[in-house]
Amino acid sequence: MGVRLRTTLAATAVVAAALALASFALFAALHASLTDSARTLAAQDAQHKAVVALQGGAGIGAGGPGGKATAPPPDQGPGALAGPPPGLPGKGAGDLVVISRRVDTQSGTVTVVGTASLAPARAAMRTLTALLVPGIPALLALVALLTWLAVGRALRPVSEIRAKVADITARDLHERVPEPASRDEVGALARTVNATLDRLQTAVAAHRQFVADAAHELRSPMAVLRTRLELAHPAERRLAAGALDDVARLQALTSDLLLLARLDAREPIRTRETDLAQIVAEEAARARPRTDVRVALRLTPDLLVDGSPDHLRRLVANLVDNAVRHAAGSVTVALTLDAGSGQVRLGVSDDGPGIPPEHQHAVFDRFTRLDHARTRDTGGSGLGLSIARDIALAHRATLRVVPGPPGARLEAVFPPRVPARC
Description:
Blueprint: H1 3-56, E1 60-61, E2 64-65, E3 79-81, E4 96-105, E5 108-117, H2 119-167, H3 185-230, H4 237-264, E6 272-275, H5 276-285, E7 294-299, E8 304-307, H6 309-326, E9 330-337, E10 344-350, H7 371-374, H8 384-394, E11 398-401, E12 408-414
Helix pairs in contact: 1-2, 2-3, 3-4, 4-8, 5-6, 6-8
C-alpha cells in the first residue's frame, strides 16, 4: 500500500471520526434545546391558563380557554406530566410536553394544564437526519478526493526523482534528478540525491582509472617475465617450464580480476547483432587440456542476440571450460530458440559428479570451488562462473543451475531481440 493511499485512508478515517462525534453532539444538543423550548412553551401555556382561571373562576380548563378544569390524580403534584392527562385529546405519549399547576380560585382549588407539541422538534430532527445521512458520505468522499489529489501533487516530484534515479546507470552518471523550485523537504531530497550522484560519478571515474592503470602495470611486467622465461638458457628450461605455467595462470587470474572490476563498475559494453550460434560452435570446437572429454553440439543455426561478441565468447568459453574440467567423459552444448517467448537458451551439461542442491547458488560466488573438484581442478581460479554470470547480467540475461541428475547443467537465457526501428 503506497504512501498516497495510506495518507488518503488515514485522513478520511480521522474526518469520519470527527464528523461522527460532531453529529452525535449536534443531535444531543438540538434535542435538548428543542425539548427545553417545548417545556418553556408548556409552562407559559399553563401560566396563561392560571391567570385566566384566577380572573374568571373555573371557566378555563386543561384543554385551553373555555374548557373544563381538570382535577389532578390523587398522587399527582404540580409539574410536567409524562403523557396527556385525562380530559385531553388523545395523542401519543411522546407527542406532547404537559405542565400542570394548581390554582386556588374563589370556587376552590383547580388544576390547569399547559401543553406544547413536540412535533416541531421531531420535524427538525428528521430534517437534520435527512441532511446528514447523504451529506456526511458526500463530505467524506470530497475529503478523500482532495487528499488524494493533494498528496499526489506533493509526491509528484518524488516520483520523478525515483524514475530518474532508476534510469541512471554507469553509462550516464552525468545526468541529475530534477530539483523542484520549492525549498521544502522534497527539494532537499533532490539536492541530496544530486550530491550523492556527484560523489558516485567521481568514485566510478577513479575506479575506472585505477582499473586501466592496474591493467597496464600488471600486464607489462608479466609479459616481460614470460618473454625472459621463454628465452631462458637450455639448461634452465626445465625449471623455466614450471615458471611459465605459473606465469600463465597469473596472467589469466589478472585478466579475470580486471574483467570483474570492469563488470562491477558497470562500464558500458558495445552491443551489436551477434550470431551466438557461430560463437558457440567455435568455442566448443576449441582445443582444451583434457583430450579425453568429448564435446557434443546441438545448435539451432543463425540465432542472433544483441550483445558484445567478445563478452559472449568469454561467457561461452567459461561455461564449456568449467564443464570439461568436471566431466567424466562427455559434455553437451545446446543452443535453442523458445518459439513461444522468443528467448534464446544456451545449456551446457556434463556427466560429472554434479552440483549438490545446497551449493547451486554458491558456485557463482567468487573463488568458489566445490570440495570434490579441488583435487582434480588445477586450472581454474574459481572466477569462471562469476564472470559468466556478470556477463549474462550485463546482457539482461540470466544464468542458473538447472537441478536434476545426472551431472551438472548450467543454462543461460537471453531475452528476445528488440526489432530495430526504421
